[in-house]
């Protein structure tokens, strides 16, 4: 009978320990790791140099001198170089009447090139993929582009696939959010996330100034990532997701309308970028920072900031005069590298000023803008690839990614580097040594600056004028 | 006469044998457990009360030990209940009912078709033949832009249609459930063929002023089975986020996808697809356990994209004149049947009662080992489900599934009547069908519903719901004014 009371004690205790261990074990399996990623470099014949850009602008017979002056101003201050890539139908001169086939082929080129390289790099077979998330904002084909990938790579029948569209330039963290949630409920999952932008069918052929801008800003690019929560692959992982925060300001009308696809007065569909875009972006950015800062900054910095704010508030109440400059949070205490969405030179400058970043911190973003342009949702991965190519990423470093998108959304996430990363298989590898260049001004001004001197009444370009 | 009688009696005997077998196998655990429990209790009673007290005293347990043990047991029970996967409940759903002014009767459709395709009489004839055999009724609706001659599918008109369909459905849902917009934590919108920037989910956030930390997702291009894909995503998200509401909006925007050319295989969608949309509220809050209509039991997804023929059978492309349309291939039915078989293979073990699974296993072993000529046993899914919602893709799809699953005409009545009244509304058709079953007062507590949908790619997705409470015949809903006229007999060919 002595065994029975002993059993009475030990059995519940064992159950308790077993349950606790199960809970702890589950948490271990919920981490989201990036095994590897591959950015897309389109073929060399798709480069848009200065001369060709001039040709494309000239081909649009709707544009007049005023539009030329506006375009010149925008492109000069865009931060682009001579090596950004455009969709093939523009280079073949068919931008006035693009076809569905062009859009699908554009995506096909990207998938076959990048996803193949990614599978070869990591050694994972397509049949091992359990989750596929594809986000390509401006193209919704039937069957979906995710089905195109499944068809080409002969993936399994029980694959979980999601095709996101319309989510703008901030869609990468959203795709990762889906995968992160699936990782929380299932074990030993491998996910493939593919993000890109289809420019063929979104090319604007009218003359509304707010809409031509998108033609000058967006360029071809894309990225494919392999994520997993398998503990066995932890050693091979490059990054671990620490936290992800999404902010959606669609409830405010000015934020919703500042970046919207619609028809202009003549019925041409284009992407309208409103004048209050910077303001909407700043508001969303501030809200997002408010939510993510407590999660990523060390307590010391948070206490320091709280203390300074309190002192400033009491000073303001006591004295009638101003209380001096607002205390600024030093984000570098919790973050080592910043991956900013390359929305444009103004965006990068604004974010750098808000976060008090140095030139060294925003160099990856500026160089990405110069070399690849604004590749929409995949731009942050090119910025990350630049940092990796420059050997800046060491084990334990924290990388902060932030992106803005239509709607208006601001999404950010924090990654921890799992091991020292080198240049292997990086899209920047071949030309990283020539960056940063001595000057990033593009030759647009010297080539086309004479347009600024022209008078609208006397301006005329003959049809057989050849741009030098 | 004497020959008929033995057949009849033997078939009745067979039926009872089958019933007895099913009852035995389904409740085998009870059959094994009850004698054991009875035996133990008899032994204990035989011991007598004094003997039991003596055993209890000899254990020598004092108060502290009792308290510790009970505390531990309570702790374990709490941990166990906390770690169970959270149930996902469907609180309520609302379907969009188009106004009567958008109605497209056969005569309207044929007249417009003749005027739009005046150079191609063969295509007009083709459309007429499709319409005659389609199973659609005279009250299906198309958006206003398509009523023009020729149709004017501008982006503004498409946005207008999206706003009307989605906002009406969500307004109706808010009224039914009484929840406030600031309570919604997750928003998923799925619309296959129209994806503006900013997305339709951003449009919903803007109109209803949803919270800034809402998790919104916009799925598109996933075809008619996208509604169930959204359910799967919502379920995964609700597992990761406790105490949340998820709003799922399923629709298909017809305006930008009206085929303006004359290629025959691409005219088919014009004849079948109609306006419709549904908004569904899901929750994992324990307080909704009592007022929710359904509980989500399983979602099973099958993707046949790796097969070439399956991938190409529903394909968007340009015809010889550059007009964009969706091409439906001729072997759509065969591929649908195969995709269904794959899906059933996965869902069968999850839902079929033990008796059916045993029979299936026996015939499988028999075929492999003894005699390959044995007919494969098709499990009787009527044992596992009370109601079936088959995506109203077209008359042929419903016929094919009825044959494959051996369903009676009452089981597929909801699908056929939805096709007749609303046409093929793509991902939202499943919700119109569920609404039909409720409107007929057939939904009782404990009933299991199987929703099956097919989509481009080629996908076959299915969801299993269990009814949480007997649903009173609803006084609102898309069927409210016409449910008394249904079911309607739909002839094979309607002469136009």
Automatic annotation (TrEMBL), chain A:
<dbReference type="InterPro" id="IPR013747">
    <property type="entry name" value="ACP_syn_III_C"/>
</dbReference>
<keyword id="KW-0812">Transmembrane</keyword>
<dbReference type="Pfam" id="PF08392">
    <property type="entry name" value="FAE1_CUT1_RppA"/>
</dbReference>
<dbReference type="GO" id="GO:0006633">
    <property type="term" value="P:fatty acid biosynthetic process"/>
</dbReference>
<comment type="similarity">
    <text>Belongs to the thiolase-like superfamily. Chalcone/stilbene synthases family.</text>
</comment>
<feature type="active site">
    <location>
        <position position="248"/>
    </location>
</feature>
<keyword id="KW-0012">Acyltransferase</keyword>
<dbReference type="GO" id="GO:0016020">
    <property type="term" value="C:membrane"/>
</dbReference>
<feature type="active site">
    <location>
        <position position="374"/>
    </location>
</feature>
<feature type="transmembrane region" description="Helical">
    <location>
        <begin position="129"/>
        <end position="150"/>
    </location>
</feature>
<feature type="active site">
    <location>
        <position position="337"/>
    </location>
</feature>
<feature type="active site">
    <location>
        <position position="370"/>
    </location>
</feature>
<dbReference type="InterPro" id="IPR012392">
    <property type="entry name" value="3-ktacl-CoA_syn"/>
</dbReference>
<feature type="domain" description="FAE">
    <location>
        <begin position="26"/>
        <end position="311"/>
    </location>
</feature>
<keyword id="KW-0808">Transferase</keyword>
<keyword id="KW-1133">Transmembrane helix</keyword>
<dbReference type="GO" id="GO:0009922">
    <property type="term" value="F:fatty acid elongase activity"/>
</dbReference>
<protein>
    <recommendedName>
        <fullName>3-ketoacyl-CoA synthase</fullName>
        <ecNumber>2.3.1.-</ecNumber>
    </recommendedName>
</protein>
<feature type="domain" description="Beta-ketoacyl-[acyl-carrier-protein] synthase III C-terminal">
    <location>
        <begin position="334"/>
        <end position="416"/>
    </location>
</feature>
<keyword id="KW-0472">Membrane</keyword>
<comment type="pathway">
    <text>Lipid metabolism; fatty acid biosynthesis.</text>
</comment>
<feature type="active site">
    <location>
        <position position="169"/>
    </location>
</feature>
Automatic annotation (TrEMBL), chain B:
<feature type="active site">
    <location>
        <position position="420"/>
    </location>
</feature>
<feature type="domain" description="Beta-ketoacyl-[acyl-carrier-protein] synthase III C-terminal">
    <location>
        <begin position="386"/>
        <end position="466"/>
    </location>
</feature>
<feature type="active site">
    <location>
        <position position="387"/>
    </location>
</feature>
<dbReference type="InterPro" id="IPR016039">
    <property type="entry name" value="Thiolase-like"/>
</dbReference>
<keyword id="KW-0812">Transmembrane</keyword>
<keyword id="KW-0012">Acyltransferase</keyword>
<dbReference type="InterPro" id="IPR012392">
    <property type="entry name" value="3-ktacl-CoA_syn"/>
</dbReference>
<dbReference type="Pfam" id="PF08392">
    <property type="entry name" value="FAE1_CUT1_RppA"/>
</dbReference>
<feature type="transmembrane region" description="Helical">
    <location>
        <begin position="61"/>
        <end position="82"/>
    </location>
</feature>
<protein>
    <recommendedName>
        <fullName>3-ketoacyl-CoA synthase</fullName>
        <ecNumber>2.3.1.-</ecNumber>
    </recommendedName>
</protein>
<feature type="active site">
    <location>
        <position position="303"/>
    </location>
</feature>
<dbReference type="GO" id="GO:0009922">
    <property type="term" value="F:fatty acid elongase activity"/>
</dbReference>
<keyword id="KW-1133">Transmembrane helix</keyword>
<keyword id="KW-0808">Transferase</keyword>
<feature type="active site">
    <location>
        <position position="224"/>
    </location>
</feature>
<dbReference type="GO" id="GO:0006633">
    <property type="term" value="P:fatty acid biosynthetic process"/>
</dbReference>
<feature type="domain" description="FAE">
    <location>
        <begin position="80"/>
        <end position="368"/>
    </location>
</feature>
<dbReference type="Pfam" id="PF08541">
    <property type="entry name" value="ACP_syn_III_C"/>
</dbReference>
<comment type="similarity">
    <text>Belongs to the thiolase-like superfamily. Chalcone/stilbene synthases family.</text>
</comment>
<feature type="active site">
    <location>
        <position position="391"/>
    </location>
</feature>
<keyword id="KW-0472">Membrane</keyword>
<feature type="transmembrane region" description="Helical">
    <location>
        <begin position="28"/>
        <end position="49"/>
    </location>
</feature>
């Amino acid at each position: 009978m002595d065994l029975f009371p002993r059993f009475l004690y030990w059995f519940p205790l064992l159950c308790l320990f077993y349950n606790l261990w199960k809970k702890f074990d589950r948490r271990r399996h919920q981490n989201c790791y990036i095994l590897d990623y591959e950015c897309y470099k389109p073929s060399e014949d798709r480069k848009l140099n200065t001369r060709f850009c001039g040709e494309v602008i000239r081909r649009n017979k709707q544009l007049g001198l005023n539009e030329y002056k506006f375009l010149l101003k925008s492109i000069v201050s865009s931060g682009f170089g001579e090596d950004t890539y455009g969709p093939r139908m523009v280079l073949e001169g068919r931008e006035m009447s693009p076809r569905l086939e062009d859009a699908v082929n554009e995506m096909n080129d990207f998938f076959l090139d990048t996803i193949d390289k990614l599978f070869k790099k990591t050694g994972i077979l397509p049949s091992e993929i359990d989750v596929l998330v594809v986000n390509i904002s401006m193209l919704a084909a039937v069957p979906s582009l995710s089905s195109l990938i499944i068809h080409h790579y002969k993936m399994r029948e029980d694959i979980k696939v999601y095709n996101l569209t319309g989510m703008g330039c901030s869609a990468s963290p959203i795709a990762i959010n889906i995968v992160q949630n699936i990782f929380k409920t299932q074990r030993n999952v491998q996910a493939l996330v593919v993000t890109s932008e289809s420019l063929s069918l979104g090319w604007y052929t009218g003359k509304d100034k707010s809409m031509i801008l998108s033609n000058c800003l967006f360029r071809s690019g894309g990225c494919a990532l392999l994520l997993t929560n398998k503990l066995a692959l932890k050693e091979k992982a490059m990054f671990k997701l620490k936290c992800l925060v999404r902010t959606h300001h669609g409830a405010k009308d000015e934020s919703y309308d500042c970046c919207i696809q619609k028809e202009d007065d003549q019925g041409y569909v284009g992407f309208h970028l409103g004048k209050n875009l910077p303001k909407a972006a700043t508001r969303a950015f501030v809200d997002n920072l408010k939510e993510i800062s407590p999660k990523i900054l060390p307590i010391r910095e948070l206490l320091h900031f709280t203390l300074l704010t309190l002192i400033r508030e009491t000073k303001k109440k006591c004295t009638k005069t101003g209380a001096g400059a607002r205390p600024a949070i030093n984000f570098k205490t919790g973050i080592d590298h910043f991956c900013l969405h390359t929305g444009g030179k103004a965006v990068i400058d604004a974010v750098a000023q808000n976060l008090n970043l140095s030139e060294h911190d925003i160099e990856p973003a500026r160089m990405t803008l110069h070399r690849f342009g604004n590749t929409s949702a995949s731009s942050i991965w090119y910025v990350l690839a630049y940092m990796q190519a420059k050997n800046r990423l060491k084990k334990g470093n924290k990388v902060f990614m932030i992106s803005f998108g239509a709607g208006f959304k601001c999404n950010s996430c924090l990654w921890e580097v799992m091991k020292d990363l080198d240049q292997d298989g990086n899209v920047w590898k071949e030309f990283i040594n020539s960056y940063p260049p001595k000057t990033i001004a593009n030759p647009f001004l010297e080539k086309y600056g004479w347009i600024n001197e022209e008078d609208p009444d006397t301006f005329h370009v003959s049809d057989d004028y050849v741009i030098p | 006469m004497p020959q008929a009688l033995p057949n009849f009696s033997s078939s009745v005997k067979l039926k009872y044998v089958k019933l007895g077998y099913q009852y035995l196998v389904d409740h085998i655990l009870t059959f094994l457990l009850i004698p054991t429990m009875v035996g133990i209790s008899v032994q204990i009673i035989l011991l007598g009360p004094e003997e039991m007290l003596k055993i209890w005293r000899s254990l020598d347990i004092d108060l502290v030990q009792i308290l510790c043990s009970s505390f531990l047991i309570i702790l374990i029970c709490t941990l166990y209940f906390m770690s169970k996967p959270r149930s996902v409940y469907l609180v309520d759903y609302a379907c969009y009912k188009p106004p009567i002014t958008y109605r497209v009767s056969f005569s309207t459709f044929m007249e417009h078709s003749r005027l739009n395709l005046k150079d191609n009489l063969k295509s007009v004839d083709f459309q007429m033949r499709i319409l005659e055999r389609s199973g659609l009724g005279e009250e299906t609706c198309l958006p206003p832009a398509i009523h023009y001659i020729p149709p004017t599918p501008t982006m503004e008109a498409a946005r207008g249609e999206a706003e009307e369909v989605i906002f009406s459905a969500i307004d109706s849902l808010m009224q039914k459930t009484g929840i406030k917009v600031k309570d919604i934590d997750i928003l998923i919108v799925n619309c296959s063929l129209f994806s503006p920037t900013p997305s339709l989910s951003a449009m919903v956030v803007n109109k209803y002023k949803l919270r800034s930390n809402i998790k919104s997702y916009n799925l598109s291009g996933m075809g008619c089975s996208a509604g169930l894909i959204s359910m799967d995503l919502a379920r995964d998200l609700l597992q990761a986020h406790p105490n949340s509401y998820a709003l799922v909006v399923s629709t298909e925007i017809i305006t930008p996808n009206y085929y303006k050319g004359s290629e025959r295989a691409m005219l088919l969608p014009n004849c079948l697809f109609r306006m419709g949309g549904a908004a569904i509220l899901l929750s994992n809050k324990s307080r909704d356990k009592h007022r929710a209509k359904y509980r989500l039991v399983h979602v099973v997804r099958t993707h046949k994209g790796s097969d070439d023929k399956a991938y190409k059978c529903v394909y968007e492309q340009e015809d010889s004149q550059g007009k964009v349309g969706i091409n439906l291939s001729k072997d759509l039915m065969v591929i649908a049947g195969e995709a269904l078989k794959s899906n059933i293979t996965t869902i069968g073990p999850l839902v079929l009662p033990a008796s059916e699974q045993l029979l299936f296993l026996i015939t499988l072993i028999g075929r492999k080992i003894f005699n390959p000529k044995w007919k494969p046993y098709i499990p009787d899914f009527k044992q596992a489900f009370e109601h079936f919602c088959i995506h109203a893709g077209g008359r042929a799809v419903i016929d094919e599934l009825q044959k494959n699953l051996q369903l009676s005409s009452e089981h597929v009545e909801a699908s056929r009547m939805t096709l007749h009244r609303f046409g093929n509304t793509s991902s939202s058709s499943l919700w119109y069908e569920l609404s039909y079953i409720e409107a007929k007062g057939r939904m009782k507590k404990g009933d299991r519903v199987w929703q099956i949908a097919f989509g481009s790619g080629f996908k076959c997705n299915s969801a299993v719901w269990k009814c949480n409470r007997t649903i009173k015949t609803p006084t609102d809903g898309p069927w409210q004014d016409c449910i008394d006229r249904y079911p309607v007999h739909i002839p094979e060919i309607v002469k136009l």
